[in-house]
Every structure is written in structure tokens, then in C-alpha cells.
Amino acid sequence: MNNNDKLARAADNRLVRIEDIPISDQKRYRLPLLLRLARQVATLSPECEICRSLQLQIAQLGADLTYRPPMSRQSFEDYLLVMKSIATHLRRSHGLVDKRYYVKRYVLISFTFGIMLVLLGLILLSFGVTLLTLNITLIALITRVVFSYTIGYFMDRRTRKRGRVI
Ligand SMILES: [Zn+2]
Predict the structure, then answer these.
(1) pLDDT band at 135, cuts 50/70/90?
(2) Which of 47, 90, 91, 124 is deepest in the core (most CB within 10 A)?
């Protein structure tokens, strides 16, 4: 564990005493996400007034998690909603992205486009145009998806290294 990890861990434990929260609750209450949000907001708060006020909300979420489980359905929904709005602020105002954002986005786009071409191939096939058309569009579909996955993977890695991931 290097020094930065130690500092981050200490900050995490100031928010909630992680050891006291059962693993199942950590999962249910999205603790890893809460900790990531807390770190990003703490980093950005010197330059952003909204982030400074979000720190209070995050402290409140940490307190809820420490003293309140099991939460009622309503407070659990509110809890998730607050996290969602914090993530939205980080995305909109600071240009942060979700985990695997680029892979998901690029693969979806290329897959949709590829499927459209395959459908076109099928239409051409129904008009008696050679089977080759369909083969070409299928191969192109696979190539496109693999290619866009690779690009997305490296974009995500670069974003992560810059600390721009929620
Ligand atoms: Zn902010």
C-alpha cells in the first residue's frame, strides 16, 4: 500500500468505518461508489462551490450508512437519489465519466450501425443479390465491434489514469 492509498483509506474511514459495515450492506448501499464520489468531490471542492456543499451531503450519506441500516424503502430511495444527483453534477460540471463509458458507448454505436448494414444485406439478398453481400456485412459487423471495443478500452484507460472516472 503506497502513501496515496493510505491517505485515501484514511479519508474513506473518516466517512464511514468500513470495517463495521457488513459486506452485504457495502454492496447494497453502493459503498464503493459512495467512496469514489467522496474522493472526487473532495478533490474538486477547492475550486467548486457546489462540490463544497455536496461534501455535506456526502457526510450525511456516510452517517446514514453508519447508523441507520436497515433503511426503510423510502430512505433507501432517497439515499440512492442523492448519490445519483452528485454523480450528475460531476458529469455535467466537471466532465467526469462513468466506468467503462467509452467501451459501452462505442460498442453500442458500432453494433447498431453494423446491424443496420446486416439488415440491408438481408434485404439485398431477398432481391436475389448474391450471398456475398450478407457475408461482407457480417464480417464488417464483427470487425467494427472488435475495433470499437479496442478504441473504447484505451480511451477508458486513459480517462482512468487521469482520474476522470466516477
Ligand atoms: Zn463541482
Answers:
(1) confident
(2) 90
